[in-house]
Amino acid sequence: MINRKELIGKHNPVLKTMDTDSPLTVGNGEFCFTADITGLQTLYDEYQAFPLCTMSEWGWNTKPNLAGGFYTFDDVEKTYYSIDGRNYEYAVDCQAENEEVYNWLRHNPHRRNLARVALLWDGREISSTDITNIRQELDLFTGVLHSDFTLNGYDIKVRTCCAKSADVLGFSIMSKAPAGHLSVRISLPDSSHRKNGSDWDRARHYYTDEMAKMNNECYLLGDEAGLGVPVALSDATGLGASVAPGANNACYFIKFTGSEFEFTLAFSPTAFPIASVEGMKNKSNFERLITDNANSINNTCYFKQVLTDSATGWKSFWTKCGLIDFSKCKDPRAFELERRAILSQYLIAIQSTGNLPPAETGLSCNSWYGKFHLEMHIIHSGWLALYGHSDLLEKSFSWYVSILDKARSNAGRNAYKGARWPKMVGPEGTDSPSFIATLLIWQQPHLLYMLELTMLVNLNKLDFKRKYWFLVKETADFMVDFLRFNDETGYYDLTAPLIPAQEEHPPETVLNPVFELCYWHFGLEIAINWAKELNENYSLWQDVYEKLALPPVIDNLYPAHANCVDTFSKFNRDHPSMLYGYGFIPCELIEEDKMRTTAELVGQVWDKQSLWGWDFAFIAMTYARLGYPERALETLLTETAKNSYTVSGNNFQRGRDDLPLYLPGNGSLLFALAMMLKGYGENRGACGFPGNGLWDGIVVEGVRGLPW
After folding, report:
1. Is the peptide bond before 707 cis (omega within 30 degrees of 0)?
2. What is the distance between the alpha carbons of residues 304 and 289, in angstroms, rounded to a whole number?
3. Region 406-419: what's the mean pLDDT?
4. N or C of the chain: less Cβ packing under 10 Å?
5. DSSP for 139-159?
6. Could you give the CA distance from residue 119 to residue 115 in angstroms, rounded to a whole number?
7. What are the phi and psi torsion angles at 380 (to 5°)?
8. Distance CA 305, CA 310 (A)
9. Which of 172, 170, 178, 169 is nearest to 151 (CA)?
């Protein structure tokens, strides 16, 4: 048995200096607060590479266009393709005089930074030069951030936590500074599509008044957009505290005089509406709001309640979660692999376990304006079904249901049947114009894979299949209709215009990309098996499945696609996706000897610096399935700029300013470890670790291998 608290605590991130590449974050899966070394967001301006944000799953904004209105996807000018007698239209190129529409649709909606919470000294900003004796530790088992430091010669202790059951932050500040020096400023920026999600230049005004007393003092900060942020104050020393407006009502200050002070901040998209300034000043109205939303604020109003809620929630998560203990291994790489695994579980749990698919930087900052990329969904989150948390993965399936009509329209735009799932998208489900996004296709089978993984651990498998059958049908209908029958070969092809996972190829030239063909075969097999069990008609699917084109072979190697004769000389960069049809998924269309030769050549000629964080795990799975465990392990731990992991565990894509963290790297690592340690299909046991005695004694609890 693994001593879970001990194993997890061994990898608590500890900072003893300011590390702007690795700030620490608390959250609950749908809401996150990223802090600097003070446990707040005091040094905001010094964290430029990795901004300090307070972000939520629900915190989106759409800015009006220059005319004061809102564009739709129909307003963007399309790029037209005519291939083999069929016409297609996609929002690919930014057309002259249509730039505003194109960019507006890319930028909106965008995720917003909800607030900055900063410690002040005598009402002034604090800089890192004012701070010494730093020791900050994130307790992973409880989700509490402990920040100890000396400020202007005085010792300060800050505890920061986030409730697991509500979007409420809790703060405790203990200070040896004389009374009156310390205060906290809360600023609520306007939204922006930029990385920090904040527009600090536009003046926004806030209104507050002492609204109600709930055994402590409770205030409501509101902005012009109607977003309310309740502030609950509980002074541990009984010396009093107050909320006061700053200049021009642009921010608010919590002023306190005691040596120990606690407060909480509760955030909600709808729970605290502000109809007008006068409405805010009506105490009875506010008391009613508090009463009506008791579950979201009353139960987590005090710091100690938030602290307890955080600890209880995290204990439940870690108790249920699959874990891997490498402590008995003699290989010197074991500790780092264990560290990355534990921290990856924490990071994805706080940022990528909500009701929406996750963005590549989660809820830390805006990558691609905060929008999520559906081709990354299973790479972020598929591991949850293998580590005892399929319920957290299933939460996001409801979003696919909510955008089904949009997905049907997306398919119908080019006269396809079924639902075509978008690529770069916000919660409303509208695909974003892009020279890649609208032409990418490998996200289409993901939902089938995730549904199958989740179904396999469901006690009521038949009920589960009935519940989600319509999603399977719509997905498979599109996949079948997207293929084109080749009269000369008698097979169905994946043909242009499309962009494969290796996003390096002109869309007009792509024919039968190897990975996508394998994935289509894999996905349709899942759909057919569901149809059989539910007594649904699958005859068309079966016909296409049996006549799917074979993966192309050039010089006894699997190329990127059938027309890419120079895969290994000119296109030997980015994702070597031809390997992924025999690792991440199995495909009976693949010949093992040819895949082995292909993998050997990729290892020799591929530009490893161009690989993304998730590539290393996917390549490792292919090596494991080919019977090369040492290569699998070496690949997983390859030292490159994009396979680096910070103190916090973030897979930092060094060299890219827009990706200070990259959660697909974290998720893919966990996915690969499940396969490498628990095997696949009928094979059980560690297929991805060498039998040289250095990896003996690995203990695995609650982790499942791949069923295929």
Report:
1. no
2. 22
3. 98
4. N
5. ETTTTEEEEEEEETTEEEEEE
6. 13
7. -65, -50
8. 8
9. 178
Q: For residue 401, give the amino acid letter.
A: V
- Asked if pLDDT for residue 696 goes beyond 80, the answer is yes
Q: What pairs with residue 414 in β-bridges?
A: none
pLDDT at residue 285, rounded to an integer? 47
Q: Is residue 703 within 8 Å of residue 649, measured between CB atoms? A: no
Mean pLDDT of the residues in the chain: 91
Determine the Cα–Cα distance for residues 688 and 522; give it in Å rounded to an integer.
Answer: 22
Residues 27 and 154: beta-carbon distance below 8 Å: no
SS (H, E, C) 359-382: CCCCCCCCCHHHCEEHHHHHHHHH
Residue type, 343: L
How confident is the model at residue 666, as a pLDDT?
98
* 257: exposed, middle or buried (Cβ count in 10 Å: 0-12, 13-18, 19+): middle
Cis, bond preceding 664 (omega within 30 deg of 0)? no
Q: Name the residue among 536, 562, 422, 543 with its Cα closest to residue 472.
A: 536
Task: Report yes or no: 170 and 307 within 8 Å, Cβ to Cβ.
Answer: yes
Nearest to 256 by CA among 229, 236, 228: 236
CA–CA–CA angle 23, 27, 30 (5° rounding): 125
Question: Where residue 277 falls among pLDDT bands split at 50, 70, 90?
Answer: very low
Give the separation between CA 263 and CA 236, rounded to whole angstroms: 10
In angstroms, the CA 383 to CA 346 distance is 13
Cβ-in-10-Å burial (0-12, 13-18, 19+) of 458 comes to middle
In this predicted structure, the answer to whether residue 538 has a pLDDT above a threshold of 60 is yes
Across the range 404-412, mean pLDDT stands at 98
Q: d(Cα 458, Cα 462) in Å, to the nearest integer?
A: 9
Would you give the distance in Å from CA 537 to the centre of its chain? 36
Q: Is the pLDDT of residue 294 over 50?
A: no
Task: Give the least confident one: 173-187, 239-253, 581-595, 608-622.
Answer: 239-253
In this predicted structure, the answer to whether residue 560 has a pLDDT above a threshold of 50 is yes
**Token output for 360:** 């590549």
| pLDDT tens-digit series, residues 199-230 | 988 745 444 443 333 344 555 555 545 455 65
- 336-346 core/surface letters (b: 16 or more CB in 10 A; e: else): ebbbbbbbbbb
Residue 691 neighbours by CB under 8 Å, 6+ apart: 629
Q: Is 494 helix (H, G, I), strand (E, B) or coil?
A: coil
Beta carbons of 61 and 171 less than 8 angstroms apart: no
For 541-552, give one letter per residue: b (16+ CB within 10 A) or e.
bbebbeebbebb
219-276 residue pLDDT tens: 555 554 545 565 666 655 554 566 766 765 567 788 877 788 888 887 877 544 433 3
Can you say whether the dihedral through the CA atoms of 387, 391, 394, 399 is positive or negative? negative
